[in-house]
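Thread: Modeling a multi-component assembly for a lab meeting

Hi all, long-time lurker, first post. My supervisor asked me to bring a structural picture of a complex we are working on to next week's group meeting, and I have zero experience with this. I have the sequence lines for every component (718 residues in total). Could someone generate the structure of the whole assembly? Inputs are pasted exactly as I received them:
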Amino acid sequence: MANPLLKIEDLHAAVQGKEILRGIDLAVGAGEVHAIMGPNGSGKSTLAGVLAGRDSYEVTAGRVTYAGQDLLEMAPEDRASAGVFLAFQYPVEIPGVGNLYFLRAALNAQRRQRGEEELDAADFLQLAKKRMKLLEMDDTLTRRAVNEGFSGGEKKRNEIFQMAMLEPKLAILDETDSGLDIDALKVVAQGVNALRDAQRAMLVITHYQRLLNYIVPDYVHVLAAGRIVKSGGKELALELEEKGYGWLEPEAAAV
Amino acid sequence: MSAATLTAPPAPAVYTVPDAAYERAFAAIAARSGEPAVLRQLRRSAFAQLQQRGFPTSKHEEYRQTNLAAVLQRSAFALPERPGAAALRAAERAAHPGAAFGGPQLTFVDGHFTPELSRLKSLPAGVRAGALLAANDAGDDRLARLGELADIGGENTLVAFNTAFFSDGAWVEIAPGAQVDAQIEIVHLATGGAGVPTMAHPRQLILAGRGSRAKVVETYLSLNGAAHLTNAVTEIFVAENAELEHARLQQENTAACHISAVHSRQAADSRLRLHALTFGGALTRNDVVTVLHGPGAEALLNGLYVAEGRQHVDNHTVLDHAEPRGASREYYRGILDGQATTAFRGRILVRPDAQHTDAVQSDKNLLLSSDCTANADPQLEIRADDVRCTHGATFGQIDEEALFYLRSRGVGAEMARHLLIFAFAAEALGRLNPSPLRTRLETELFSRWTGLTPPEGAEASGG
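Re: Modeling a multi-component assembly
Sure thing. I ran the full set together rather than chain by chain. Output:
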């Protein structure tokens, strides 16, 4: 890949002095879907958080280049405007702020930042209706406060709805499958698949192979103890499903 | 052993006797001609009570956070007569928020009923309302009911202070069964005077008839930035199966001292929603005493206080569950900035007969600076054994995770912070039934923090 959309080089990051990421190298090109798998505590969510700009992580070494820019230098909102989107593992409830209002404020903040015209209420609503259909979302969910009182499945659906509205260039899905029953998983996967296109890259972080039956990745990487210990095609996910993560431990230790 | 050692040290003064200025002011009132005998009698006993006890100091357990005596003794207050033409013109502009709602409105200037700024011509069916003194003149003896709930002989001597000095008040009566959609407005405007701060002692008497439904809003405003004192008393009777929503909106200037007492009594299966919304005042002290006096009564106490600079807000509430199967929900929310100080004391009393009481209390504070101070003091007194009673208080900063969530979607850091402050307030406003008042407050608060006009759907109701 000559100019990948996202290029991670020797990335190290720590939380409260404890090193979690210990040298990640990864290149993701436009249009590609990469799955990051790994056992609990391997650093999957830390990687997602560092890319989105969560400030509880301290990057101690390495660099991340996104669309030719130094991603780590950018504020979270600037990353968003530049097309980075993180679907949260635990979406935050914000009582008092309407779901649709929030989304319109976000979308228009991004458009302003990019020098584009803001969407008026009518155009926004039309777009929202279309996207809601894609996620089979109930009208009432969008009228409520952001994620307030949503079930686990509704929250995850709302994340993908936001992604569909914001149309990012790089979508990072952090354990979007966790807490979903199979029907909800299918709907969410269907939404994600509808957003796959040649311009958009996706980083799908998951503990289980199950999600990858529905969102079929181009590449699979295994993260263990803060490093990518194995990379391969979609069949690697199946191998992991069969053998578990245990067989990779020696490789993880050897790196 | 000498006699001296047998003498107990003098008890700390929990009250101080009002200084001579109040005596002179009262003498002027007592000398007024034309006041009905019932009122003269009421004033005299109230002033006698006040003189006997005095104003509470911070040595008084109920006033530890707020030394009212220090404020009330420090300065003499003028008791203005009816507003002149200039005050009326100023008041006309300020009365506007009520006017914009277009519903029935009673307006008072410095405690005097001002018919020129009121709208009582076409009251909705089932609503009777007016000024207390005028009602008395018309042979309708509303005055006799004053003090039935707010006792002039009680610990809270500010009620006696009000009763001795009040100029007039509003009464609102909802007929049994009446379903009133219009919001009934009571607006109090303070002129602040020139040089000497003014004082006003407004009164409200609200009677919700059996099975009725209505909304009453009390709004307190200052006409300018001059210091003044408001000491208001509201008595609310909610008859069987009636539903009353009562909002008290305090938006006085930040030099004002605002004291209030709201006393309510609910009959069986009635529903009362009391909102205490405090934005103004240098010093504010609100007392709410709610008695669930019949089985199956439900009360909501919803408080929102926003204090910055050196503002001080003290909310004391008493929820008195006297009968079985009562439910109370008490939610107070504070937003503090600068060097603001606030206090919340919430007492829940469950009497022996009040089995199957279900009471929830929470006080949450959002602290925006490192110099502000919030106090919370829940007091549960439970004398029945089959009840559910919970309480909690929190003090916290802006939620970092929520901030990151908003920013990760493209909302700028500052806007995200302001949205979250608004959201905290919007949750409280969401507990008001949808009304022109709620919409106006949501708009005002959204603009206050974000500097923007809210598009539709900015707010979403809280739980």
